[in-house]
Amino acid sequence: MTTTLTLTRPDDWHLHFRDGDQLRGTVPATAQVFRRAIVMPNLTPPITTVALAQSYRQRILAQAPDQSLFEPLMVLYLTDATTRQQIIDAAASGIIYGAKLYPAGATTNSDSGVSDPAGIYPLYEELEKQNIPLLLHGEVTESEIDIFDREKVFIDRYLADIRNRFPALRIVFEHVTTADGVQFVQSHDRLTAATVTPQHLMMNRNDLLAGGIRPHNYCLPVLKRREHQLAIQQAVLSGDPRFFLGTDSAPHAQNKKEAACGCAGCYSAPAALPLYATFFEQHQALDRLESFASFFGPDFYQLPRNSDTVTLIRENWTIPSHAEVGGLTMVPWQAGVELPWRMA
């Protein structure tokens, strides 16, 4: 039985650091394991310009561990007021690696997002021209549409047409949650990809709702039926390079999660790589973890693969019940669960 597992250092292609004092905890949790991370721009106010991205990037780097080579890859937040020139400026900045489409109201701090994804075609055209990936939160937001159907409706209403109209645009279907999303990615070439979270690999909506509501498993897009979970698992385990690691680690204070109207997000960063390793081992596919975690993402983003390594050790350890992050008490995703792998 394998007792150690050494991998090319991975990257996290979708996460949330938040801001302010929280960076003192969230940045080291990621930087100790991952070399790079696509940093979501849904702050208050959102990261809508190069200047805001530069400032946020410096705040993140100030909290990276000493001697760390960690690199935050910044993302532009698209709004109805975003201009072509802002995208041109982003491409010239050297620090922005994607543009994020949040349908307004879809998730945390998305109120400034795009009111009509079909109404910003000139921006998609400029992203295609500048070779900046479009990163999608692929859900509609109308209240009359069932929350479990919102990803499929987004594909049918918007994404299929965007993909057809802009064939050279790189598109990432972030945190894919449905068989419909998986099939959409699989039906296109390598310019269409998806990030996959640990919670959508390892859980379905029974883990959120059966036997009582479990607020720390609540995220957006919400966990779906078992059949959708199986489709995501099969895509990842197949070794398809269009599916790669993106934790969507999203910290919230414990009292904001365990509330009458709890926040959406799973804070998985403290145990991210051991969680993925556990999943791959459970499916007799540890040999495919490195490609998923370390190769497919940089290949899609047209960046070099990392040259250094990380090592996991086969040793049972328990995810802590709490984490103190910038003066706030948070509950890591899967707190109290024993895993067979830990970071060396």
Explain what this protein looks like in three dimensions.
- The protein has 344 residues and is of the alpha/beta class.
- It has one domain (4-343): Metal-dependent hydrolases (TIM Barrel, Alpha-Beta Barrel), CATH 3.20.20.140.
- Helices cover 33% and strands 18% of the residues.
- The strands form 3 sheets. An 8-stranded parallel β-sheet has the order 2-3-4-5-6-7-8-9. It has a 3-stranded antiparallel β-sheet with strand order 1-10-13. It has a two-stranded antiparallel ribbon with strand order 11-12.
- Helix 3 (84-93) packs parallel to helix 4 (121-130).
- The protein is globular.
Label this structure with key terms.
single chain, 344 residues, alpha/beta, TIM Barrel, eight-stranded parallel β-sheet, three-stranded antiparallel β-sheet, 12 helices, 13 strands, 33% helix, 18% strand, globular
- Residues in helix, %: 25-40%
- The strand count comes to 13
Tell me the domain tally.
Answer: 1
> H/E order of the elements?
EEHEHEHEHEHEHEHHHEHHHEEEE
Element layout with pairings:
Layout: E1 4-8, E2 12-15, H1 23-31, E3 36-39, H2 50-61, E4 71-77, H3 84-93, E5 96-101, H4 121-130, E6 134-136, H5 150-165, E7 171-173, H6 179-186, E8 192-196, H7 198-202, H8 206-209, H9 226-237, E9 243-245, H10 254-257, H11 272-282, H12 289-300, E10 309-318, E11 323-325, E12 328-330, E13 338-343
Parallel strand pairs: 2-3, 3-4, 4-5, 5-6, 6-7, 7-8, 8-9
Antiparallel strand pairs: 1-10, 10-13, 11-12
